[in-house]
Design a protein that fits this description.
It contains eight helices and seven strands; from the N terminus they run βαααββαααβαβαββ. It is α+β, with helices and mostly antiparallel strands and 212 residues long. The protein has a single domain, classed as 3-Layer(aba) Sandwich (Aminopeptidase).
Length: 212
């Protein structure tokens, strides 16, 4: 994906971006379920987002509304060619670092065990069933809580939708917060499936077909 209107995040922006994601997902149902201990969650989440952003900077496209980073959009363009070895080395490195943090912050291995059981919530394997291979997958769409209701999420999502429509691509995403469904429905997304495995947590899998 490319954009002429959004700000492309640089490597120097990553620490600020990690702080933003930590603010945005502090009370997200996914993390509250997999990391139920609030003290462990407070210590662990910044480390997890550091792993994510390091990996996604190498393998995905990361955009913000502006250099101020009030909102962020992380997308994987499944139609883009990629270096197979580089992709899987980046993924393996991030996974190893994540596991290290999980064990360091909770030596009882309970949190590590939750992440193993919650694998279906942490990957996007459900997209393998989709008929459309020309696809954008939205990994993160997040806005600073203090800047919400200013149209930032709509700005970011509109740009992804416009790109997808120009290239006749489907968009896929998942959310673990039922309150987000109405927002995505407003932009033409439809519920494709609900994943619920091992925990009383629902993952809402959504798609938007390309405009004709």
């Amino acid at each position: 994906m490319d954009s002429t209107t959004l700000y492309r995040v640089t490597r120097d922006d990553l620490p600020k971006l990690e702080l933003l994601l930590n603010q945005c997902f502090a009370h997200d149902p996914l993390y509250e379920t997999l990391i139920p201990d609030p003290d462990i969650r407070t210590r662990l989440m910044p480390e997890l987002f550091h792993c994510d952003m390091t990996e996604f900077y190498e393998t995905c496209e990361i955009f913000a509304d502006s250099p101020e980073l009030n909102g962020v959009l992380v997308v994987s363009d499944e139609a883009e060619p990629y270096n197979f070895i580089h992709f899987y080395l980046s993924e393996a490195k991030a996974l190893l670092q994540t596991d290290t943090y999980l064990i360091k912050e909770d030596p009882t291995l309970k949190t590590f065990g939750n992440f193993l059981k919650g694998e279906d919530y942490l990957n996007s394997r459900w997209t393998e069933r989709l008929h459309q291979k020309q696809r954008l997958h939205i990994i993160y769409l997040a806005v600073n809580p203090q800047m919400q209701h200013h149209g930032i999420a709509a700005l970011l999502l509109d740009d992804a939708i416009n790109y997808a429509n120009r290239h006749q691509m489907m968009i896929s995403l998942e959310t673990h917060n039922e309150k987000n469904l109405e927002f995505y429905h407003h932009f033409g997304f439809q519920l494709y499936d609900i994943v619920e495995a091992h925990f009383s947590l629902k993952q809402y899998c959504m798609i938007k077909e390309p405009a004709l």
